[in-house]
Amino acid sequence: MELVNASEKSAFGLRALVPKIDEAEWMAMRQRTALLAGTAASAYQRQSGGSLQVQNFGKMQAIDPVANWQIAIDAPVSLDPIVLVSTIEYVVGITQVRLEEALGRERGIVGLLAAFLRWPDDLRDAVGGSRKRQRSAKALGVAGQVFVATLSTVLAAAIVGAAGQLLSGLWVG
Q1: Is the N end or the C end of the chain the one with fewer CB atoms within 10 Å?
Q2: What pLDDT sits at residue 125?
């Protein structure tokens, strides 16, 4: 929205918005918006993934409004900036609700166990990208689970052994 507020309609009859502030500052804002749109587009696809119908050169076309955010600047008649901002706010709201639900499910020992078992898949999803990267991330996650499980077993055995020694010393003496 900051980028839209720093823009005005073109004086040459074009539909595009142009900077009403220093152009270098406006281009920096546009670049930040593009970077943020990448993250927002990923969240949008996970949470909603719907498309909007926009008119492009006289033809109706279905688009991902977040991935195509620049239409709100280049052709605001086709994609009103307010619609784009509302879509992103909607995704933020859904994401916050799902985060709170996930945090609620992961309380206690059962939640911790579920999070531990789900970790390789979560790691793979976070990596994204190619199948090779996803397989590598999942393998790393499984290896991490094996390591933690082994370490936990050794620790548990040491604690039980120490407790056994302590208790046998109390009974004898």
Answers
A1: C
A2: 64
